[in-house]
Here is the input.
Amino acid sequence: MRPRTFSALVRAGGPERFVREASERAARLEREHWLKTLEAEALRQCGKEAEICATYLDGLRRKLNSTRADVAPREDRRGRVQRLHALGVWGEHKAVALLKRAGFSDVCELNAQFPNHQFADILAERDGKKYLIGVKTRNKYQASGRLNPTYNIRKKEADIQALADRHEAVLAWVAISVVPEQQKFSAYFGTIDEIQSSGERFSIPMTPEHTARYDRLSCPLEETDSSIEPDWTNGGNANRPE
Here is the structure.
């Protein structure tokens, strides 16, 4: 109930309190409207548009759920960094084993020799060709529950061709999509030239129509690995639409 006297208004926190509360209510209603609209639109999107739409949806959900103490988002960010780091380290080690199983030889983990090696994590050979390989490991699903459609493989300003020339190698990648709760993963191998020929310069497309063309390293398609930690999840698998 709104105060009816000046003294009651002062005790309630003054006019600014009600202005602030009205503003927060209006902002929440507007965000709820756009969340509902974008969720319906997201079902019709694919590729880059799906990725952009999913990013907006995640942002709206975060703002709608921002009533927790300020320390919680900081803890969430710290936990996310730790989760991504653990997932990435696992992925690099897994990629070495998968490449060896797929017939690659002289598989060398570059980060063991040069920590945070630019772009490439592995140097390996197959059929007389040398490959400089970047490894990207991600949750298969975004936090929204939608398929993670692309994995960034290199920074826009990075001159990775110079690295390849230095090693006299073909630029390549291993992409590993993980469902931590199920301790399952799918893994693929390809070259930078292959994704550039389809119009991508900085990301690996990971939609089914693209992964069907890659050299699959996991066997079966979704391979089980008990070393995958369920707490590496971003919650996306639980949010998948039925």
Observations:
- The chain has a mean pLDDT of 83.
- The CA atoms of residues 206 and 212 lie 9 Å apart.
- The chain is about 45% helix and 20% strand.
- Strands lie at 105-109, 122-126, 129-139, 150-152, 170-179, 184-191, 203-205, 215-216, 223-224.
